[in-house]
C-alpha cells in the first residue's frame, strides 16, 4: 500500500530502483521504475475498480454542459442511477434536452441551482423518494457546478467575488450539507471538482482561486470528519480543459470585460489605462481555445473515485506542464516558484 502510494509520483522517474528499510520490522521495500511507467498524468492507469456499480444513486451538479454533462452520460452508461442537476432544466436548455432524449429511467435531469436552498431541498426529496430504500441512503455526490471569471484584484468588484463564491464554494457546501444524511447512510462518496487553481494561484484569477482553495479546505475538513463514518471524500483537480467545456467563451469574456471596465473606479481606470486593460482581455480571449479537448481524464478520475474500493484523496487530470508546475509551486519556497513561473 505504502509502496503503491510512494511509487505514483515517483513513477515519473524512468529506470530507477529505490530501496528503503522499514524500521519497525527490518524488511526492505524496493521500488523499481521502468521507462514503460511513463504514462501521461491525465491518462494514468488506475488501480482496479472493485465496487460493483449496480444502480447506485449519484447526483452530479452542473450537468447542462462540460464535465457535468459528459459525466452524467458516462455514469449512466456504467449502470449508476444518475440524477443530473441542471441549472437550466426549467428553461429547456439544449444539454438538458439531450440528456432527457436518452429516455432512461436511470438518468433523470432535475432543476438545480446550487445557490438556491429551496431547489437543493427539493432535489433531496426527489432523490430520497426515488430510492428503493431511503434508509440505505445514496452512494455519491459530485459537486461539479462552477463558474469562472478573470481580472486583477483591482479590477474585480466585491460583487463579483461574492457571485463566484456563491456558486463554487457556498454552492458546494450547501449541496453537500443537504445530501450528507443520505450519503452517510450508504457510507458513500463525495467528489468535489476543484481545479489546479485550488492548489496554486494565478495572477488575474483571484475570484476563482479563492473559491477553489476554499473548496479544497472544505474537502479536507469533511474528509477528516467523515473518515470514522465510512464516507470517502475525494477532490479532482483538473488542469486546463477550457477548449472542451463552456467555462469560457469569447462572448462571455467580452461581456465580463465590458462590465468590468464600466464599473472600474476612476482612479484604477486612470492608473492602468485602457490599453493595458484591453491587452489583458485579449490574453483571456486566447485562452478560449486552450487546453485539452479530451475530458476523459477528468471523467475517468471521477469514475475511479466513485467505484474504487480505495479511491485517492486527490486526482490530477492535467498535462505534464501543469502537473510539474503544481508540484513546484506547492513544494518549493515561494521565492523560487515565483521566479520560475510568475515573474
Ligand atoms: N474547464 C476547465 O478547464 C476546468 C478546469 C478546472 C476545473 N474546472 C471545474 O470543473 C467544473 C465544471 O466546469 P466546466 O469546465 O465543465 O464548465 P461548464 O461547461 O461551464 O460547466 C459548468 C456547469 O455548471 C453550471 N452552473 C453554473 N452556475 C450554476 C449554479 N448556480 N447552479 C448549478 N449549476 C450551475 C453551468 O450551467 P450553465 O452552462 O447553464 O451556465 C454548467 O453547466 C467547474 O467547477 C469548474 O470550476 C474546469
TrEMBL record:
Catalysis performed (reactions): (R)-3-hydroxybutanoate + NAD(+) = acetoacetate + NADH + H(+)
Similarity comment text for this entry: Belongs to the short-chain dehydrogenases/reductases (SDR) family.
Domain of life per record: Eukaryota
SUPFAM superfamilies associated with the record: NAD(P)-binding Rossmann-fold domains
One family name in Pfam for this protein: adh_short
Species of origin: Phyllostomus discolor
Main location: mitochondrion
EC number, as in UniProt: 1.1.1.30
Quaternary structure and partners: Homotetramer.
Gene, per the UniProt record: BDH1
Listed InterPro entries: NAD(P)-bd_dom_sf, Sc_DH/Rdtase_CS, SDR_fam
GO MF assignments: 3-hydroxybutyrate dehydrogenase activity
The protein, known as: D-beta-hydroxybutyrate dehydrogenase, mitochondrial
Location(s), subcellular: Mitochondrion inner membrane; Mitochondrion matrix
A single GO BP: steroid metabolic process
CDD domains, sorted: type2_17beta_HSD-like_SDR_c
UniProtKB keywords: Allosteric enzyme, Lipid metabolism, Membrane, Mitochondrion, Mitochondrion inner membrane, NAD, Oxidoreductase, Transit peptide
One GO location term (cellular component): mitochondrial inner membrane
Amino acid at each position: 500500500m505504502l509502496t503503491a502510494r510512494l511509487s505514483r509520483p515517483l513513477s515519473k522517474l524512468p529506470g530507477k530502483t529505490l530501496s528503503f528499510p522499514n524500521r519497525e520490522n527490518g524488511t526492505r521495500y524496493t521500488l523499481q521504475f521502468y521507462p514503460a511507467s511513463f504514462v501521461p498524468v491525465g491518462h494514468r492507469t488506475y488501480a482496479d475498480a472493485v465496487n460493483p456499480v449496480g444502480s447506485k444513486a449519484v447526483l452530479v451538479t452542473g450537468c447542462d454542459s462540460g464535465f457535468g454533462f459528459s459525466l452524467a452520460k458516462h455514469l449512466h452508461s456504467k449502470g449508476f442511477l444518475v440524477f443530473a442537476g441542471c441549472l437550466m432544466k426549467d428553461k429547456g436548455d439544449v444539454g438538458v434536452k439531450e440528456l432527457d432524449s436518452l429516455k432512461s429511467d436511470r438518468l433523470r435531469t432535475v432543476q438545480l441551482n446550487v445557490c438556491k436552498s429551496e431547489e437543493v431541498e427539493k432535489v433531496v426529496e426527489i432523490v430520497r423518494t426515488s430510492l428503493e430504500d431511503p434508509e440505505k441512503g445514496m452512494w455519491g455526490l459530485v459537486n461539479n457546478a462552477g463558474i469562472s471569471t478573470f481580472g486583477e484584484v483591482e479590477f474585480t468588484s466585491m460583487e463579483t467575488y461574492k457571485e463566484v463564491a456563491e456558486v463554487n464554494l457556498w454552492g458546494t457546501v450547501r449541496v453537500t450539507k443537504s445530501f450528507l444524511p443520505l450519503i452517510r447512510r450508504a457510507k458513500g462518496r463525495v467528489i468535489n471538482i476543484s481545479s489546479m487553481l485550488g492548489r496554486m494561484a494565478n495572477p488575474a484569477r483571484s475570484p476563482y482561486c479563492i473559491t477553489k482553495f476554499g473548496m479544497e479546505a472544505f474537502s479536507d475538513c469533511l474528509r477528516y470528519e467523515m473518515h470514522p463514518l465510512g464516507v470517502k471524500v475525494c477532490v479532482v483537480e483538473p488542469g486546463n480543459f477550457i477548449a472542451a467545456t463552456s467555462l469560457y467563451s469569447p462572448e462571455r469574456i467580452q461581456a465580463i470585460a465590458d462590465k468590468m471596465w464600466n464599473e472600474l473606479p476612476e482612479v484604477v481606470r486612470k492608473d492602468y489605462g485602457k490599453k493595458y486593460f484591453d491587452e489583458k482581455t485579449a490574453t483571456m480571449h486566447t485562452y478560449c481555445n486552450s487546453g485539452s479537448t479530451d475530458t476523459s481524464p477528468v471523467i475517468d478520475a471521477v469514475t475511479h473515485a466513485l467505484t474504487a474500493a480505495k479511491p485517492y484523496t486527490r486526482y490530477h487530470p492535467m498535462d505534464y506542464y501543469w502537473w510539474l508546475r503544481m508540484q513546484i509551486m506547492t513544494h518549493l519556497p515561494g521565492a523560487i516558484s515565483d521566479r520560475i513561473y510568475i515573474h
